[in-house]
Amino acid sequence: MEERPYRSASGAPIALRCRQHSASCRELVVRCPRLQLRSLSAVTSAVWLAAYALFVLSENSMVLSAAIFITLIGLIIYLHFVKIDQESLLVIGSLGIQVTSSYASGKESTTFIEMGQVKDVVINEAIHMQKVVYYLCILLQDPGDPQGVSEVVPLFQSSKPRLDCLIEVYKSCQEILEQRKTALQSSGIK
Questions:
Q1: What are the tens digits of pLDDT across the range 42-56?
Q2: Terminal-residue alpha carbon distance, the chain
């Protein structure tokens, strides 16, 4: 299990951990920086100072209570639905691909894609705000048209790794997909 440092598209530090469970099973985890206590304290202090200023002007204690309540609810929503600590990709050649997002609150969101639905894993590019952004995605095979693509599933949407990190993940995925294609061709299954 090796962990290598990389940068996200915005320049934030991230880390890629590659773990090979077997020849046809790999887990790739991208870790984002944890929530910084300094930034959390700054936002909370700013909201509470503004509320205190309103309290002094209006002499209404409901302003302070509302500020505390809104800050706590906002923090809970941010930790449970927005802030993702890590995103993982578990590629199992014989079964499929599992994509998991772990939130700061401990909540996990998991999606599984059967290998029979996977047409390919590719690095795609998009132009966003005068900048080229690269992202890894899974192309799902169209059941009606074997040459077509029914859906594109983007990966690592929260961490947004740069191209060098995406290439590492791409190579790992392609090795397993090639092993699967070779095994299917040798057994005579298309």
A1: 888 888 888 888 888
A2: 34
Model confidence pLDDT, tens digit, residues 109-136:
999 999 999 999 999 999 988 889 999 9
Strands (E), the chain: 2-7, 13-22, 25-31, 84-92, 96-103, 108-114, 118-127, 132-141, 149-154
d(CA 60, CA 36): 32
Task: Give the CA angle between residues 163, 31, 153 to the nearest 5°.
Answer: 60
Residue 189 binned pLDDT confidence (cut-offs 50, 70, 90): low
- Distances in Å between the Cα of 22 and the Cα atoms of 19, 130, 146, 148, 166 are 9, 42, 29, 31, 21
Distance from C-alpha of 14 to C-alpha of 23, rounded to nearest angstrom = 26
Residue 3 structure tokens: 């962990």
Q: What CA–CA distance (Å, rounded) separates 21 from 91?
A: 10
